[in-house]
Amino acid sequence: MRICEITGKVAQVGNNVSHSNRRTKRRFNPNLKNKRFWSESEGRWITVKVSAAGIKTINKKGIDAALKEAVAPKKVY
């Protein structure tokens, strides 16, 4: 599933709007990447599926603090 493990971002639904203003449904997917971060406390690499905003959060706070504060995944029905 396309969910950021740090921020909890999920795909949103919206419309494609044509030049004639016709609207058709589309999805806005989060910008997810599989990224490895080095954890000093565990002494190993941790692979996380994370959005671009999540990468910024990890760079600011550190991987250990970001994982502790990670948002619980939202249920998608």
Account of the 3D structure:
The chain is an alpha+beta fold and 77 residues long. It has two helices and four strands. It has a two-stranded antiparallel sheet with strand order 1-2. A hairpin with a 4-residue loop joins strand 3 (32-39) and strand 4 (44-51).
Q: What is the helix fraction of residues, given as a range?
A: 10-25%
Q: What's the total helix number? A: 2
| Gross morphology | elongated
- How many runs of DSSP E, i.e. beta strands? 4
The overall average pLDDT, rounded, is 92
Please give the order of strands in the largest beta sheet.
1-2
What's the alpha carbon Rg, rounded to whole Å? 16 Å
Strand content: 35-45%
